[in-house]
Write a structure and sequence with these properties.
With 508 residues, this protein is mostly helical. It folds into two domains: 3-202 and 291-496, Up-down Bundle (Growth Hormone, Chain: A); 234-289. Helix content is 77%, strand content 0%. It is built from 21 helices and no strands. Helix 17 (342-359) crosses helix 19. The protein is globular, with a radius of gyration of 22 Å. Keywords: Cell membrane, Membrane, Transmembrane, Transmembrane helix, Transport.
């Protein structure tokens, strides 16, 4: 029987590949949405639970710390347990943690629930991307990653919109409760996702159980190979990566309140970098590394990680300042401020599905990623012309900026998600997926802290201006830095993808 006939029969038998996309996209929405939805709800939660100003940031930081710090471990665990099983555990755990946070009667319980959300998100995110990568091939892969990227690109904006609506009407607790039905529906849908074994069987003739090339008709991998495939967790690497990412994310988060001149901040950042350097040394010598270093050495994957990290640094600052500008300067309600970002979400969807999704595999990745970064930079830099009393601000500035940044997001996230896992085999898929998600989380944490600190310093330096004018000066200064970061990302990505071998599916 030919490989194409076998593939057709398996697809007809299951008829469920697109269910995989639906449930993975729902999970991606949960993970990304929870990075922003609590921001708008936080003032109400603080008043209801009596949080001190000095500790309220933990409602945000606890999620980022555990999510970013545990992603590499989550990717490895997903490979050991199986991607679908890990996906289900992540969904159900995320739902339980969300319900616990919604019912919290004290700040400590809320912070603990948010940390627990991050734990399960760190398992859920790489498992979902791994399922998508192993399920779709060829032209369908481009369409699938287009939809997946659209959900990720729009998730932050949807979080702000949902946060405003839920906080203003049913109450802040529903910003957490809303995750429960979404997660449970996705978990039910995951029952229709082909099991890991079914996916391997469909791909038989190209890869066996641990990713080694084989031929049709050969027996499954021997028991010793399966045992090796489910080998022990790299404990040293796990602890170093967790501590390193946690120190970096916490350092970035504390920079917002302590300032970049704080010795504590620089101690955390230096310690985080030292721990990650030690992690690289340990991984280079480990028999079963948590992150095989060839995942990072490949030029195309390096380009994907660089592009998505710098994109998230700039865009999380963009969302933060759009929320503050529309509410504190233009006087929008939380709901109207959130709804303003619908334009960005729609543009991201269009860029992911109708541009990147259709062109994926037909053009070089650089032809999507570099223009996408430049479009996002143009939209961000356009807003540097804002003043406290800019006329026709929505039509002349906000609308085109939302369209440009949304299209840029959509055109970047789809091909970078594909490049991050392309050519990966066995457990390497989970490691690459986890690294891609970790790049997003570190970028988001750094962007929020870095650009907010820049804005605060520029606002304080605007002596003699009105409060509104000083605030807008701070926002536009930070947006100029964000635009510069996006331009640098475009240049670096163009260089990394300039090699003729960038499209190779081999890990290197």
């Amino acid at each position: 029987m030919s490989l194409d006939t076998e593939k057709t029969q398996v697809d007809a038998r299951s008829g469920r590949r697109w269910w995989t996309l639906a449930v993975v996209s729902a999970a991606q929405l949960l993970v990304v949405l929870d990075g922003t939805i609590v921001n708008i709800a936080l003032p109400s939660a603080q008043a209801a639970l009596g949080m001190p100003d000095g500790s309220r940031h933990w409602a945000i930081t606890a999620y980022a710390l555990t999510f970013g710090g545990l992603l590499l471990i989550g990717g490895r665990v997903s490979g050991v347990l199986g991607h679908r099983r890990s996906f289900l555990i992540g969904l159900l755990g995320f739902a339980a943690a969300s319900a616990l946070g919604g019912a919290a009667g004290s700040p400590e319980l809320l912070f603990g629930a948010r940390a627990l959300q991050g734990v399960f998100a760190a398992l859920l995110a790489p498992a979902g991307l791994s399922l998508l990568s192993t399920t779709f091939t060829g032209r369908d892969r481009g369409r699938a990653f287009g939809v997946f990227a659209a959900v990720g690109a729009a998730g932050s904006a949807v979080g702000l919109i949902a946060g405003g609506l839920l906080t203003e009407y049913p109450g802040w607790r529903w910003c957490l409760y809303v995750n429960v039905p979404i997660a449970l529906l996705a978990a039910l849908g995951a029952g229709l996702v082909p099991a890991d074994r079914a996916i391997r069987d469909r791909n038989r003739g190209r890869l066996d159980a641990d990713g080694t090339p084989t031929t049709p008709g050969t027996n499954p991998a021997p028991a010793d190979r399966a045992t090796r495939d489910r080998g022990r967790l790299d404990v040293s690497g796990a602890l170093l990566s967790l501590a390193g990412f946690a120190a970096l994310v916490y350092g970035f988060a504390r920079a917002e309140s302590l300032g970049w001149g704080s010795a504590r901040v620089w101690t955390l950042l230096a310690g985080g970098l030292a721990l990650l350097a030690a992690f690289v040394v340990v991984e280079s010598r480990a028999a079963r590394p948590l992150l095989p270093l060839h995942v990072l050495r490949h030029r195309a994957r390096a380009a994907a990680f660089v592009a998505v990290t710098l994109l998230f640094i700039a865009m999380f600052g963009f969302y933060l300042f759009m929320s503050y500008y529309t509410q504190t300067v233009l006087g929008y309600s939380p709901v109207r401020a959130g709804l303003t970002l619908i334009v960005n979400a729609v543009a991201a969807l269009a860029g992911s599905v109708f541009v990147a999704g259709r062109l994926y595999g037909r053009v070089r990745p650089a032809a999507l990623i570099v223009p996408g970064l430049l479009a996002a930079a143009a939209g961000t830099l356009l807003l540097t012309r804002l003043t406290a009393d800019t006329p026709d601000v929505f039509v002349l500035y906000l609308l085109p900026a939302m369209v440009l940044t949304g299209l840029g997001l959509g055109c970047v996230l789809s091909p970078t998600a594909g490049l991050a896992t392309e050519g990966m085999r066995g457990h390497d898929i989970g490691a690459a997926s986890a690294t891609y998600n970790a790049a997003q989380q570190v970028g988001a944490a750094l962007g929020t802290a870095l650009l907010n600190t820049v804005a605060a310093a520029a606002t304080a330096a605007a002596v003699g201006s009105t409060q509104a004018a000083a605030s807008v000066h701070g926002y536009t200064t930070a947006l100029a830095v964000g635009g510069g970061i996006l331009l640098a990302a475009a240049a670096l990505t163009a260089v990394l993808l300039s090699s003729r071998r960038h499209g190779s599916s081999h890990p290197s």
